[in-house]
Design goal:
Radius of gyration: 47 Å
Number of strands: 0
Shape: rod-shaped
Strand content: under 5%
Length: 137
């Protein structure tokens, strides 16, 4: 009987060891399968990154240029608005002076036509800033 129990225990231990080895082998196989899966996924991601990187860099470069152009256009617009504002004041002041000079009959005041104000008034009239016609000569 003791020999029989030893024999049964020996058989049971062998079967248990065999199951343990098979379980271990299956676990190692599963781990190797996971390694292959994740290696493949990693390589796919690297490939995608390598495809996307030049597109990203190109887009970033274009965006940088567009930002600089936007800033330049903002500065130009601000300069234009300031210039337009000042030109409107100059136009109004010159138009007022032109009206005053055109109504004057005094010879000394008529000589002002030969000054830079007259020249400026004429130039502005030619480009459309002063619509009043100069009266006199």
């Amino acid at each position: 009987m003791i020999d029989e129990k030893k024999r049964e225990r020996l058989i049971s231990n062998r079967e248990s060891a065999k199951r343990s080895r098979m379980k271990h082998e299956q676990h190692v196989k599963d781990l190797n399968d996971e390694i292959m899966y994740f290696t493949t996924k990693c390589n796919e991601m690297i490939h995608k990154i390598n495809e996307i990187t030049p597109l990203y860099e190109s887009t970033e470069s274009r965006n940088k240029i567009l930002r600089l152009q936007r800033e330049e256009l903002r500065k130009r617009l601000e300069m234009f608005r300031n210039t337009k504002f000042h030109l409107q004041h100059v136009k109004n002041a010159i138009a007022l002076k032109c009206k005053c000079f055109s109504k004057s009959t005094d010879a000394s005041e008529q000589n002002i036509k030969n000054t830079s104000l007259f020249t400026l008034c004429s130039a502005l009239r030619n480009i459309g800033y002063v619509k009043e016609q100069w009266k006199g000569n």
